[in-house]
Amino acid sequence: MDSIVCPVTHLGRGRVEVQEGGVAAVVEQRELAGSVPSGASVRVMQGFFEGLELPVDRDWMVVGRGRGADLLITEPTISRAHAAIGFDGGTFFVEDLGSTNGTSVNGKRRPRALLNSGDEIQLGKLRLRVTLPSER
Fold first, then answer.
1. Distance CA 48, CA 78 (A)
2. What pLDDT does residue 11 have?
3. What are phi and psi of 81, to 5 degrees?
4. What per-residue confidence (pLDDT) applies to 19?
5. Range with the lowest mean pLDDT among 16-25, 72-81, 94-103?
6. Are strands 103-105 and 120-123 parallel, antiparallel or unpaired?
7. Among 29, 76, 116, 126, which is least packed, fewest CB within 10 Å?
8. What totals of helices (H) and strands (E) does the chain contain, helices first?
9. Which residues contact 41 (CB under 8 A, 6 or more apart)?
10. Taking the chain, what is the end-to-end CA distance rounded to the nearest angstrom?
11. Is pLDDT larger for residue 20 or for residue 105?
12. Tens digit of pLDDT for each residue in 4-62?
């Protein structure tokens, strides 16, 4: 599947809006607490934004439908702050933030899981595929 290139609007204060098909996702770019290896990304495999690929360029990235989410996706089956994708200095991980529908990695529901390249994260009906840099 090819990546989708979407128009991006800079909103100021480190926030950008990504538009696809008349619906927008707001991504907040925060200062990094540590050095996150370049090349990590998540791609939407199922959901409205299917094909959209976004970098994991910070050590804590909240995915949800609320205004405070770093990756804001308007999907009714995910919580306002559903899960966070993070980097702890040595490994990438996903952590459920007390969501209603839970977080699964490769079909297994987990409160926190270490991530490998190719893993699939399920948040409600939203499905993401993880790509990590080859050297960690």
1. 13
2. 47
3. -125, 85
4. 54
5. 16-25
6. antiparallel
7. 76
8. 0, 14
9. 53, 54, 55, 56, 130, 131
10. 25
11. 105
12. 444 544 444 445 455 555 445 555 444 444 589 999 999 999 877 899 999 999 999 99
Q: Give CA separation, 37 vs 2, 7, 99, in Å.
A: 23, 25, 28
Report the pLDDT value the prediction gives residue 89, as an integer from 0 to 100: 87
- Please compute Rg for the chain using Cα positions: 14
- Alpha carbons within 13 angstroms on the beta-carbon side of residue 39 total 8
Which residues neighbour 131 within 8 Å (Cβ) at sequence distance 6 or greater?
39, 40, 41, 42, 43, 53, 117, 118
Length of the chain in terms of residues written:
136
Confirm whether pTM is higher than 0.70: yes
Q: Look up residue 131 and give its two tokens.
A: 């790509």
Return the amino acid letter for 93.
F
The torsion angle over the Cα atoms of residues 63, 88, 91 and 43, rounded to 10 degrees, is 20
d(CA 117, CA 92): 10
pLDDT at 32: 41
- The whole-angstrom separation of Cα 46 and Cα 111 is 21
